[in-house]
Amino acid sequence: MSGFYRLSGGRILDPSRGRDEVGDLFVAGGRIVDPASLPVETRWESIDASGRIVAPGLIDIHVHLREPGEPQKETFASGTRAAAAGGFTAVVAMPNTRPPADQPNTIGWIRERAREQGVVRVYPTGCLSEGRTGEKLAPLGSLRAAGVVALTDDGSCIQDAGLMRRVMEYAAMLDLPVLEHCEESSVSAGGVMHEGYWSAVLGLRGWPSLAEELIVSRDLLLAERTGARLHCQHLSSAGSVRLIREAKRRGVAVSAEVTPHHLALTDGDLARYDTHCKMNPPLGSEADREALLEGIIDGAIDLIASDHAPHCSFEKEVEFDRAPFGIVGLETTLAVAAETLVKPKLLDWPGLIARLSTIPARLLGLPGGTLSTGAAADLVVIDPDLRWTVNPQAFQSRGRNTPFSGWEVQGRAMLTMVEGKIVWRL
Amino acid sequence: MGSEGPKGNPEHRAEGKWTRRHLLGLRELDREEILLLLDAADAMTSRWEGGRESPSLRGLTVVNLFIEPSTRTRVSFELAAKRLGAHVLEIDQESSSIRKGESLKDTARNLEAMGADFLVLRHSAAGAAHFLADRVRSSVINAGDGAHEHPTQGLLDLLTIRRRLGKIEGVRVAIVGDILHSRVARSDIWGLRKLGAEVTLVGPRTLLPEVFGRFGVRLSSELDPVLPWAQVIILLRIQHERQREGMFPSLGEYVSLYGLGNARLGRCPPEVLLMHPGPVERGIEMESEVADGPSSVILDQVASGVAVRMAVFSELARLHRRDREGV
Ligand SMILES: [Zn+2]
Question: Residue B127 and residue A317: Cβ atoms within 8 Å?
């Protein structure tokens, strides 16, 4: 039985209704309630939220939970604990698992296991192509029936424009968003970092921004033609931001995300060949980073997602060329986003919460992202002033692969509640 | 060769001491550090030619860890280490357990546990030397890491030019060929620029991206206009593999655009120096008679190589002993 909580004296931020005021928030029976509707003798467990932000739980629409298939990297239990510790109450799981989530029974298995073992909500996605090979349509209709919230081949990108057209037509018919990992692989082939000044200095094989921009362009044309809802994942280049901004002005149904690491880091951070800075897409130039910041401020980019990608430590302890792409992000997203956006006053807290909660919920049609009375009590209490040092050894995630180790950051989830149940308390 | 003693060099201003534990690249060295190594190489040569021994590595162990094969560079390091009295251990790709799936990290840790004082690493991955340097207590010398750097090659090129022309400041150098994939080009560019040479890079756009313009050099996709200008031409090795990757249409076309034959040599100043890191692919980067002709200083480079490596070993050894013995 869920408890009765009174979160008192916090700054209540609810971008879904433009609310930003100091006050008390009441939770009962797993929902946000109006205390006047309950008997006066109700005994509330008081949680002091003064000096803190009370916000709708964060929603991360780009997470690799590694199950099924790679529990040594992450499990539903560890991944959702990490999410809770980061202030997230819901995550969208990418389907590049082993096996890939391209069959309804796999989706069923994921939903069941996630419900049993997860402490936050887990929404599965299904593959676009069978086996993520980019050759043949996955059973998209059955995947929807099995409960996927979106379709994606994330980790790879369908190269065949003809197949992609069919994918979009199908997705539009099923009214499912297509989450695209934008990478033209003949252009990115062999690349391990952004192609530019630093790849020239370091002698590493370059990955041109063009690889992303070609697919963004192609997919914008296809989305416009088919009416599919296109969402471009983890944008990394100034050119992509410009393309999306222009398409939005034309009225194309497109949305986009950016990761905290693409907002915080650049290819210059690879100067010591740190494999924790090796990601897909690669960290761009300073000009790219500035364009991404601009995009998230003016709305060309809709939201922030972590692309949480845990790997075993030994996999990253190798020569740069051999290391896998990706870093963990669930536990650092809020603080790194606050450092790069709120601290330099590019966004205020309501703006950041919108991009981490309300907008992601709206975009994929997920519950949450609001503190409306009657809504499920999925919420987070954030201390915006708490200074802390990122220590991967203290992560809830099984992945320790972060470039932010040792960073002094500010802002942290103190308490996370899912459906009225406290799942994280610092 | 070797006629230019340290005193005759206008650039001899290196007063400081060597303070680094590793030699990973020339980009991170400042002008004074590079000059210090060049002067030390000259001093080594005079001492060696004067028949005086300099056993500055006595009692120390050098491991030549050549994961990517290169007989020339390996032998040069071996000779340098032995002349200085070191124990030298050769580990190549065949004998190393790297092939059996052991990681570079494990291999290095094992060698260190066996008492290696120096790890001379040749590896196909850029950054491999940094990787080791961050994880071992031995001194790491980068003997070529992927397309990143080959600092002793850069130093020996600088030494060769300085010995021939008496200076590096203001010297006009053209580097020709596959700049993009060349660790030699990178080390040369950093070294030459820090010492004040003028550098023009020459090659097809696919092998010479525009971004190299940010290295403080000029770029040209044509060789012919550069020929009358250059006092030194460094020709880089062209790998057939690049043609298969579609970086240029054919070797024949490459030779017609960038190959150095007698006709092109005729357009160079008569005193031009032709250099090549070797091994030369005769008939491609340069015609055979050019490679063996009077302008070629390829064998000087080989000789400079041993001197430079002796200098690097001794400077690192001084610091290494101080660290180890707390002197
Ligand atoms: Zn992706």
Answer: no
